[in-house]
Every structure is written in structure tokens, then in C-alpha cells.
Write the C-alpha cells for this entry.
Amino acid sequence: MSPPPIQVQLRRHFAAAAERVFDAWLDPAMLRQWMMGPSVRDEVVLRVAVDARVGGTFSFFVRRGDLELDHVGTYLELSRPRRLVFTWAVQVGAAPLAAEDLSQVTLDFEARDNGCVLTLTHTMDVKWAEYARRTEAGWTTMLGGLDRVLSSEVPHG
Amino acid sequence: MVEHNAARLDDTFHALADPTRRAMLRSLSLHERSVGELAAPFQMSLAAASKHIKVLERAGLVRREVKGRTHVCRLDAAPLSDIQEWLRYYEQFWGERLDMLEALLRADTPTPPSAPTPRKKGRLR
């Protein structure tokens, strides 16, 4: 038995076709309206660059006060309109990328009720998942707290 | 916030990445142990055990206290809460963005004259 990966999962119904929701993740003009920028939080968008193909990268570069943050990643799968997979990392200033670099976001779209359901799964750190697989059963019970953390789910069912 | 914890998170993962160190933590979760006691089950030198303990200390998972001639190690599970924090941060991060996207697409929805789009609150959480 492998312990569950460390992940955040959200599901959301959209009153829009899967194609439109899918495209909203790749269209720089759309991304500026909902992913980054003043409509989401107090920040200025300096650059949104999207190279939407497998192996292509993206960069959502913003300034928050004195802090410059680049949200970067590589597209791993683009199966419009069913599935979109990319890596996700946040780079602060010139700091080298760290543990979170290896996080991965998977979007699954399913047509439903005049719209679609999007399931977003953000999995943390491939390195970590590897250790977890190697160690098999046992280690989740190593510490009560860790077990709870690992099986943590979005609290709203 | 989360960004600043990245280095510490790295240390935590690194510390937990090794079976010997995980076994040491398991042992410490029962009660405190000396360095010698921690080393004993692994047939390793005190120096080798000490190296592992240093990694655990660096991650803040183990506190070492010198009692006379003995070094006593104790578990501190607090760093594991960083992982919890990561989860909470991204739960909120994506939740806010999906809210925005939902609102944007709703505002943007072209309403076909014959078949109006049902304005249904569609959150499945």
C-alpha cells in the first residue's frame, strides 16, 4: 500500500463548455483577468508568456510591493478539452527554485449540466512521492501528525 | 509566505527521505533516546548515526540536549506543519482563482437567444 501523495484537490462546476474553461488557462488575456493581477490580489502583472505545447513553458511574472514573483512551469499534457497538465513553481527574485519546484497541476474537465466540472489536483514534490512509494506501508503511521497531513483533503467534501 | 518556507520544506523532505532517519524518528516518537540508543538498531558507528541526527536537527525534527556525558535526542514534529501549511495555502490559492474564473466566464457567457444558459450556482465542494 502506498501512502496518498501530498496533494490539494478542488472540484468546481462551470456554466461554460469545457473548451472555454480549458482555453482560459492558456489565453494570456484571460489569465490576466483571473489568474494574476489586481483582480485577484494586490499585484501588478509584469509579463504573461504562454507557449502552449507539450514541453513549452509559461511564466506569469508579477510584482507585489517590493517582491517580484515568477510563476513558472512546463506543459506536460494538452488534451483539449479533457486534460491539461503542467508543472508549477514560484520563483521569488533571483532565489533558486526549491522543493515546490516539483509540484504538478493536473486539470481534468468533464462535460456536465450545460457546462463542465473541473477537477484541479496540485501534487507536491515528485521527489517526495518517490520516497513515499519506496517506503511502502508503515511510514504513514510513523508519526500521527504526518499521517493526518498526508491524507489531508479539501475539507469541504 | 509559502515561498519563504521553501528552504525549510526542502530540509524536512530531505530529512524524511532516508529510511534510517525515518526509523530514528519512529523510535523517538515513543520516547527520547541517547545517540547510542538511536544508533544501536542500525549497526552503524556513532559517527554515522550522528550524521543522520544532524540532518534531522537541521530540519528541526530533532532537538538534542546534553545531559552530562550523554546527548539526549527528542522529537519535534513542528516542521511537519509546514507541509500542512503548503496544503492550506494552495487550497486557498486555487480556490480564489477558480472563483475568479467562474465569475469571469459567467459575465462573459454569450446568451443564445433560443436557449438561455441556466444561471446555476455550480460549486461542487
